[in-house]
Design goal:
Elements: H1 10-21, H2 26-40, E1 45-51, E2 57-62, H3 68-74, E3 77-78, H4 84-92, E4 96-98, H5 111-116, E5 121-128, E6 134-142, H6 150-171, H7 175-185, E7 189-194, E8 199-203, H8 204-211, E9 223-224, H9 234-237, H10 243-254, E10 259-266, E11 272-283, E12 290-298, H11 300-314, E13 322-323, H12 324-342, E14 348-355, H13 358-365, H14 367-384, E15 390-395, E16 398-403, H15 409-424, E17 427-429, E18 432-434, E19 438-445, H16 452-468, E20 474-476, H17 479-500, E21 504-513, E22 518-530, E23 533-535, H18 537-547, H19 550-570, E24 576-580, H20 589-605, E25 616-621, H21 622-627, H22 630-641, E26 645-651, E27 668-671, H23 673-676, H24 683-698, E28 702-706, H25 711-719, E29 724-726, E30 734-735, H26 736-747
Parallel strand pairs: 13-15, 19-20, 22-24, 24-25, 25-26, 26-27, 27-28, 28-29
Antiparallel strand pairs: 1-2, 1-6, 2-3, 4-5, 5-6, 7-8, 7-12, 8-9, 10-11, 11-12, 14-16, 14-19, 15-16, 17-18, 21-22, 21-29, 21-30, 22-23
Helix pairs in contact: 1-2, 2-6, 6-7, 13-14, 14-15, 17-18, 19-20, 20-22
Length: about 750
């Protein structure tokens, strides 16, 4: 059930009732009502029009914030089927909602008047008396095209009922009739008692609150006859309320003072409900004794909605744990409270916990199973939490554990080890056995940082350090991590300017055909020289991928490679280039479309009429091939139709890689150097290379072995009929001029 977020203005309604009971002039009551509605709904300009005695015209009632000239112009307008919103509502005896005055046929003859005063929308509710006759209209104007929400319709209906009460009171001279009207039209429970608690009057809605009767909103309310034998005892009726709040009510009653607030009561059906309550004291008609008018509204649903909103604001929807916002609030509250108590900086520890290889599990088994695993992990982490600790899910597969007391390194290490052990035990998700581990970063306040946000970064840096050291472990934050983070920030800051200032350069590492002893292809490698420093790709490529700048870098690399290929083509050099492509360039359909378009854009930008795409190889990562996204496969297939070849880089480092080669559009594979460099360590490593080479030949794929550095490695590679080799045994990466001289020398040309 969707609950309105607008809290009822119980005090405002009480003031209106007080004016009615005091016999205030009708214009004063209606003006107060209009101002109350305007205060409750920002941007509203409200109006009450009264139906003339002959039932044919609408007269000014109250509209303090509408232009006087507009009020004068519509005063006395005759009602009809197309007379604006109010004239039509009074004529049709039904609510009229016009969200766009300029284009609505009800306003065809009046829109120039309204638009001239900046009025663009008008909703009107007919006001009925207790016999169902039209008394006038209540309207809400807006200076913009606007449609009402459900809560707006409730508000305008309530306003019309209160206006009805005021208008009928004005027409009535008898107190009993006045009281009957009040009780019949108030959209809330009302009770009148004397000073000793005797119940002088109550309406059916009040009885419904006491008895738990479900009231139909369309049911006509009726007056309960005077019965002074019934006694209302607030100290018993509201006994379930907080004692301080209840005592405040009782103290005000004893001093004959008004009171507003929220209290809790237990109904006769045993259900506890919350009531918004306003108590107004007044003297009886004879002026002999004090009486009290009690206005009550059941706000239990809104309280529940508020509790739900509060829960959703502070808790993770998937696991039910605290969320990042709540964690930060708790930390700040803890720090503030401790400082007030001890006047010293409090100490606490923070553990950041991240699942290892969760993306692989999520992609392989599906997001539903991934969510189920996160819930199971959250349950286990809850089991490991010490008392008074707060466990939160930060986002994705990241959790945090706040330990609001000073634990030493030994205790924190024991806790982290127990968490590692607990999470590493098997999970059963959808009848599948899964294993996962966590990496934990530990930071301490204020030893590592006295800034809460910086402390989270410290824990995060320590967690990533644990991942780098093999996962399924923990690390304490230290200053070396801070230096590394600062280095990352430095690279992040300068990488874009580096591209703009031509600080990047392409190097080329030849790929040799060992049967012909010639350079067949070369891998393009990106290098960065910044302010006299050589920054390694191992440093700047991960930062570029994290920030998304890798897309621009990739486009720049391909553009430079295109220039080199064009130069090869002009000089009849039959050497291909391999260009690495980051997985991030395929992250979304929009990036995939940009990647595909970049080829034509580059050719056009270089002013080439023809480009030899067959001299280009794209090297993708094994993880991209394993995603098996149809749109990625289609994209690569489109490029292959142009003659571009697709190669899988660092092959053999993923999971179950061989099974993906059959259907994915691949032409070549490169055996990862980690396998090549272990070839002399034993027959198992040789067997892996043999298997890869044999399967590749069966699938008509060419194979390149990378990382060949010794004669022994080369002999084993050659013995497995692998012709293409890349590595320091032959050539290191070299600048463009040096590489071109090498190719010209191989082709029998002169040097550059």
């Amino acid at each position: 059930m969707k609950c309105s977020s607008r809290k009822p203005d119980i005090e405002g309604y009480s003031n209106i009732l007080s004016l009615v009971l005091a016999g205030a002039p009708l214009h004063e009551v209606l003006t107060a009502l209009v101002l109350l509605i305007e205060a409750q709904n920002s941007g509203t300009k409200a109006s009450v029009l009264l139906l003339s005695n002959d039932g044919k015209r609408l007269l000014k009632g109250a509209a303090p914030n509408l232009p006087k000239a507009y009020n004068d112009a519509i005063d006395g307008v005759e009602i009809g089927p197309a007379v604006g919103s109010c004239g039509t509502a009074a004529y049709l005896r039904e609510r009229v909602i016009v969200d766009d005055i300029e284009h609505h046929h009800y306003w065809a003859h009046y829109k120039d008047l309204a638009l001239g005063f900046g009025l663009k929308a008008c909703w009107s509710e007919p006001i009925f008396d207790s016999l169902g006759e039209v008394l006038g209209t209540f309207a809400m104007y807006y200076d913009e095209v606007k449609s009402p929400r459900a809560e707006d319709l409730v508000l305008i209906e309530q306003a019309a009922r209160l206006a009805s009460l005021a208008i009928e009171r004005n027409k009535s001279t008898h107190l009993q009739k006045l009281t009957h009207m009040i009780f019949n039209h108030l959209p809330m429970a009302l009770l009148i008692t004397n000073g000793s608690g005797s119940m002088l009057f109550s309406n059916r809605m009040f009885n419904g609150i006491i008895e738990g009767e479900e009231l139909n909103p369309q049911t006509k309310l009726h007056l309960v006859e005077q019965d002074t034998s019934r006694v209302f005892e607030p100290h018993k009726f509201f006994a379930a309320s907080p004692s301080v709040t209840l005592q405040s009510l009782l103290d005000n009653l004893s001093h004959n003072l008004a009171w507003d607030g929220e209290l809790c009561c237990e109904r006769e059906d045993g259900r506890f409900i919350y009531l918004a309550l306003s108590v107004t004291p007044y003297r009886d008609v004879f002026g002999l004794q004090n009486c009290f008018a009690w206005i009550m509204m059941d706000v239990s649903d809104s309280k529940k909605a508020n509790h739900l909103i509060q829960y959703q604001a502070n808790n993770d929807a998937l696991t039910g744990l605290s969320n990042r916002k709540h964690l930060l609030e708790k930390i700040k509250k803890y720090i503030h409270g401790k400082q007030e108590d001890n006047q010293t900086l409090p100490a606490f520890s923070l553990l950041q916990i991240d699942l290892d290889n969760f993306k692989q599990i999520n992609d392989t088994l599906g997001h539903d199973n991934g969510d189920a695993l996160l819930i199971a992990v959250a349950d286990r982490l809850s089991q490991a939490c010490p008392s008074k600790a707060l466990l939160a899910r930060l986002n994705g597969d990241e959790f945090a554990l706040l330990l609001p007391n000073k634990l030493n390194a030994e205790e924190l290490s024991e806790l982290a080890q127990s968490i590692n052990q607990l999470i590493s035990e098997r999970f059963v998700i959808d009848q599948q056995v899964l294993y996962t581990t966590v990496s934990i970063g530990i930071a301490r306040y204020p030893a590592d940082s006295n800034s809460v946000s910086a402390l989270l970064n410290c824990a995060s840096q320590a967690m990533y350090s644990a991942k780098e050291k093999g996962r399924n472990g923990f690390q304490f934050f230290d200053q070396q991590m801070q230096l590394k983070a600062e280095r990352t920030a430095y690279i992040h800051t300068h990488i874009k300017a580096g591209l703009e200032n031509n600080e990047f350069e392409l190097y080329y590492q030849p790929i040799v055909n060992i049967r012909t002893a010639t350079i067949h292809r070369a891998e393009v490698l990106l290098r960065w020289h910044h302010e006299g420093e050589f920054i390694s790709p191992d440093e700047f490529i991960p930062v570029a991928e994290q920030t998304g700048f890798i897309v621009q870098l990739g486009e720049w690399v391909r553009k430079e490679a295109f220039k080199t290929i064009d130069l090869f083509s002009q000089n009849q050099l039959s050497v291909d280039l391999s260009v690495n492509v980051s997985t991030m360039e395929f992250w979304s359909p929009e990036l995939q479309a940009r990647f595909l378009a970049s080829f034509d854009d580059t050719v056009r930008e270089l002013g080439l009429d023809y480009f030899p795409y067959h001299m280009l190889t794209l090297e993708i990562t094994e993880s991209l091939m394993m995603q098996q996204h149809t749109n990625i496969a289609n994209l690569l297939q489109t490029l292959r139709k142009r003659g571009i070849k697709v190669s899988v880089d660092d092959f053999g480092t993923g999971y179950s890689s061989l099974s993906y080669l059959v259907n994915f559009p691949v032409d070549q594979i490169k055996i990862d150097k980690a396998f090549v460099q272990k070839l002399t360590d034993g027959h198992r490593h040789i067997a892996i290379v043999e298997a890869i080479a044999s399967l590749s030949r069966s699938l008509d794929l060419t194979v390149t072995a990378e990382g060949v550095e010794t004669k022994e490695q080369l002999a084993i590679i050659s013995g497995n009929q692998i012709d293409m080799v890349q590595g320091y045994y032959f050539y290191r990466p070299m600048p463009k001029r040096e590489f071109l001289n090498l190719l010209f020398e191989q082709a029998g040309y002169g040097l550059l």
